[in-house]
Amino acid sequence: MLILVPPSEGKTAPVAGAPLDLEALAFPALTPVREATLAALQELSAGDEARALKELKLGPKSREALRDNHTLRTAPAAPAAEVYTGVLFDRLGLGTLDPAARARADAHLLVISALWGALRPTDRIPAYRLAAAARLPGRPTAKRVWRPALDAVLPSDGLVLDLRSGAYRDLWAGPARGTTVRVGVVREAAGKRTVVSHDAKATRGAVARTLLSDAAAWEGGLETPEALAARLRTEGWETELGERGPAGALDLTIVERPAD
Questions:
Q1: Is 225 exposed, middle or buried (0-12, 13-18, 19+ CB in 10 A)?
Q2: Which end of the chain is least crowded, N or C, by CB within 10 Å?
Q3: 17-41: per-residue pLDDT in tens?
């Protein structure tokens, strides 16, 4: 099973260490696409500031992010597990997993990124800003750039647990001959349900940590959506599994209820 997570907007910039080595990243076949995307991002970030902020969908207080983008090739790099520091990664807590769980994360967890394509937690990267919805002048959308590239290097079958949302799901739809389980979170109160957005990141991070920490689950095989949903229920989550769609994808909804 693969576990897919999005990158975080929040990042901790490394203060020391060797710079980025594109060819040392996982999935080296992606290097040409990474190179072209990085070059376009650097060019945009080093040019007209107002235009760069607009194209990258950044606010006026994000000028430091443009400087990070401009120095991507020379800035210190660190493992992605240390650079990404948003809500999902805080709850996932890669740095506090036990050695066996960390090994499972290194083997089975992928960060799907608009700049790098797919990363393993150990891949060394600098801090940067490029959301999946941003546009780089002269380049196709991130979806058009990454879908064919990721289809060529990622598995074409098997089970995928998709903890991404929004535009990051568009970058890779999952294995063409496998099953992608997309995790959503809703909150139910007084018989009404509302979709959880920001807090859903924390829930998704907790789900990933629980599964990576569960040696018995991996040894017993998490090979079907039903087994996955059942395993989460044993950990206290209320889950609902949707119908399988024509592309082999289905939704697993986690229902949160207010405490009595």
A1: buried
A2: C
A3: 999 999 999 999 999 999 999 999 9
